[in-house]
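ESCALATION

Customer reports they have been waiting on this structure for their group meeting. Please prioritize. Original submission:
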Amino acid sequence: MVNLTGKHIYLRALEPQDLDFLYLLENDTAVWEISGTLKPYSKKVLRLYLDNAHRDIFEVKQLRLCISTMDDNCIGLIDLFDFDPKHKRAGIGIIIIKPEDRNKGWGAEALEILCSYAFSVLDLHQLYANILEENKASIHLFEKLGFVQIGTKKDWIRTNSGFKNELLFQKIKS
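Update from on-call: job pushed to the front of the queue and completed.
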């Protein structure tokens, strides 16, 4: 069994006390570009989401986990989405909320833990990530962990300033 605890962080299920954290994240317009969000979320809607966050990945096709420091400070989220058990694949996404918490190795550790879980526990064959072409930090992170760029989706993401390319990265179970 894979341990969801690393040297500096651990991954855990969402809890009711994460409501304020989730509210800040989901309503941060700087994140909307990559999340596809078009409008703010109310605490009521997010509370309902948290009430159902325990549902099985095989049922809801998604697994969202908090990235927590060893002193129980939630610093970000990591998730599997578009879970496809037939083809044994899923998308993977990660966000560390505060810029001052980035580039400390926590994202890499979280990504490594979730990849190990996905390949060994869920028995996935491959994971993929969609990353904006301009997001050099995320590109570096995923490449460092063995993801390979396999394509470019031209003009894929519409923003206020025009369209942006999105890169597709893939990691196949070794």
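Sent to customer with the following note: The radius of gyration is 16 Å.
Escalation resolved.
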